[in-house]
Amino acid sequence: MERDIRSIVKQMTLEEKAGMCSGSDFWHLKGVKRLGIPEVMVSDGPHGLRKQNDKADHLGVNESIKAVCFPTACATACSFDRDLLQELGEALGDECQAEDVSVILGPAVNIKRSPLCGRNFEYFSEDPYLASQMAAAHVKGVQSKNIGTSLKHFAANNQEFRRLSVDERIDERTLREIYLAAFETAVREGKPDTVMCSYNQINGEFASESHWLLTEVLRDDWGFEGYVMSDWGAVNRRVPGLAAGLDLEMPASGGATDAEIVSAVKDGTLDESVLDTAVERILRIIFKYTDGRRAGDFDLEKHNRLAERIAEESMVLLKNDGVLPLPREGRQIAFIGSFAEKPRFQGGGSSHINPFRITGALEAAENMPQITCDIRYAQGYDVKEDRTDAALLAQAVQTAAAADAAVIFAGLPDSFESEGYDRSHMRMPDCQNELIREILKVQPNTVVVLHNGSPVEMPWADDAPAILESYLCGQAVGEAQVRLLFGLANPCGKLAETIPFKLQDNPSYLNFPGDGHTVGYQEGVFVGYRYYDTKEMAVRYPFGHGLSYTTFSYSDLTLSADQIKDTDTLRVSLKVKNNGNMAGKEIVQLYVADHTGCIFRPAKELKNFVKVFLEPGEEKTVSMELDKRSFAWYNTDLHDWYAAPGEYEILACASSRDIRLRAAVRLTTRTRLPLAIHRNTTVAELLANPKTAAVISSMTDALAANISGDAENSSEAAAEAITKEMSLKMLENSPLRSFKSFVGMDEKELAELIARLKDALETE
């Protein structure tokens, strides 16, 4: 039914309206019984339902209901599969309907600036395009079930160290291109019901009090229509926050901040219309949920099977020298490592799910009828402390040596990464690295299976024949691992982040996590592969990398045009063929390289992707589109996105380092960059603009001649000292004031030239 929200707000007292802007307890919003406004519940996500009925807490200390733990975002992003993320969202939406939860808190789309961030397991990628695409699909899936999502943490929550107060110094271009772009498509296309603001400050202002962030960018630029809620405890000052666009404070404030709002309205500090607007936004989402209630499908077994399928699609085969897939019968296979029995499948903190079942690889292999191998298990290490147990190590080495192949299940213990603190290094436990090295000495057919929420250093990677990256793949992790290891499924995930050789290689290394008060984002837009690829730095495994049990070839790259305007959409198509004897999926990544030279940009940037299933020998044509934003960078003078005129290269890749096909396109634009003309404007700047070039070009020959001198009468040494090419370069870098020195202009003539150039710039 249609509700007159404004009419309801007019009937509310000032105190009731103020009360609607904070929670009634840890997980519920307030209701107003006399007006038919119900209390509704929100609950943590985003990879499962963490509904707490009592003893509520934010960091997952107290138990929640039994639910399904799906793979975390660090894993699901590696699927590069929008449809799969939407299906995950639909399942979560069904569960929320069944449990009467109006909003699930997620997904989290913050950029993986550093591998050390303790919450990276909840985040999708180092790349804003991939993160935003995954988030938009997730949001659409959840909200198709009439459940709200809360896109978080807006914005730049890229570390846990002093996250409640740290001031993150980020230039506007970097903010727009990297850290806000991860949210933008998710807001514009996914249309989340709520957005959660982050704890931190951005350039001296708390996110919870930033009118620029919460209103000008989020609402005015992107068209967000839902309500903004705080992260739990993120409010610094309630009244300035409300004025900035922070509608709902969570959790409950005990009435303290409600009273502050009432007082501010009464004394004229806060316009009551601001409060009314916030309440309208909150009520619109509350009634959207309650008026659209439906039966929820919380089928634990069905959703467990979905969790397994998502895990299969998300794990990444990093290396395979022919050991995989393992034989399914007639051989002895050693499963080594505690994680084979009790896997690490999720991170710690507010997203911690209470799964109704957990299946490790050892249990899965023993119960899978297709596998009749003799599986032998050895614990190998203790996850509770990083100390080599000589007896466990000896038993593991002996078990591995006696087998036909060994699979080592290793990774990071819970204590190494969690919400609330950052990692101090990128290493795995020393006892596990030692275990891997010792087993590699006795067993040539060794596979390392990793469990981790973010990259780890792999000092043994060159010696290990095969490596499977599982990330944190949810409660059905063991079933997915076994199906992939034994070839019952074909690996198809690709890395959503770069794995460097060592922590010191990361572009944020010298500026993470700051001094506790501020942290500088000195690397700018050069985050992740944007840095490594531009610098041509060797990495352990590049962004977008992932192997299969088959091989794929690309051919016939075709562009819909070789010249486009910045208002056009470019259609890119190519053929992909499965050259092997096993069905599989390939992720084709489309990058754009800017060759215009207008500004220093990354060597290439991901701008689209497609995942295609192919039977053995099958070939399909895939198509993707590129629009203005695919070519553009954020120009802080225009305060808008700008695609410079010139040549761009379109790259069809299997990873950021595996370029298969190339094609060029020329782009034109009617947008002109603003040009400030003054005595220090350079000749190069003036020549780059057609209007001013017409004025200045007639004078450049004389200026160049004056710089290089009389070539005919110069000595050979003098001619070599200042060549024509050198003169031209010096000319490009010369400011207008140099005309006084080299052309003989006086101050009056220089002023007249500047006026003439300004007039030319203003002509139509």
UniProtKB/TrEMBL annotation:
User: What's in the keyword line of the UniProt record?
Assistant: Hydrolase
Which GO biological process categories is it annotated with? carbohydrate metabolic process
The chain positions of domain Fibronectin type III-like read 586-656
Q: Which residues form the signal peptide?
A: none
Zinc: present as a keyword of the record?
A: no
> Which branch of life, at top level?
Bacteria
Q: Which GO terms describe its molecular function?
A: beta-glucosidase activity
Q: Can you tell me which family this protein belongs to?
A: Belongs to the glycosyl hydrolase 3 family.
Protein name as it appears in the record: Glycoside hydrolase family 3 C-terminal domain-containing protein
The organism is Mordavella massiliensis
